[in-house]
Structures are given as C-alpha cells and as structure tokens.
Design brief:
Layout (H helix, E strand, L loop, with lengths): L1 H25 L14 H5 L4 H14 L2
Length: 65
C-alpha cells in the first residue's frame, strides 16, 4: 500500500515539474526599462519571473559600472 502512495506522489510531482517547465520555456520574456526607476529594489522584486528578475538585476549592475 505504501509503495502505491509513493508512486502516486511521484507521478504528481513529475506532472507538476513538466507543467512548470513547459510554462517557463514557452513564455516570452518581457522587456524591462533599465533606468533609475527600473533599478530600484522594489521594482526588481516586483518582477514575477525569476529569470527576468535576474536579467534585470544584472543589467542594472552593469549600468552602474
């Protein structure tokens, strides 16, 4: 009985990973403005997608050089 529950949980986890991966791969990145307002901590934290947030943070860091 325990192994059946484990298989069901593993199947649900795999389905969630596939769904999340497909959603991230198929989305188009949104351009964000790299200026004083767009480089504040609140503006960067307001970006929902972690990849876009990292890109914006990197562009703002390069802007400061």
């Amino acid at each position: 009985m325990q192994s059946k529950v484990n298989w069901v949980l593993m199947g649900c986890a795999a389905a969630a990973l596939v769904f999340t991966g497909y959603k991230e791969i198929s989305r188009k990145p949104q351009p964000h403005v790299v200026d004083d307002a767009g480089c504040t901590q609140d503006a960067i934290k307001g970006i929902d997608n972690i990849t876009e947030r990292a890109i914006q943070s990197s562009k703002c860091a390069q802007r400061g050089k």
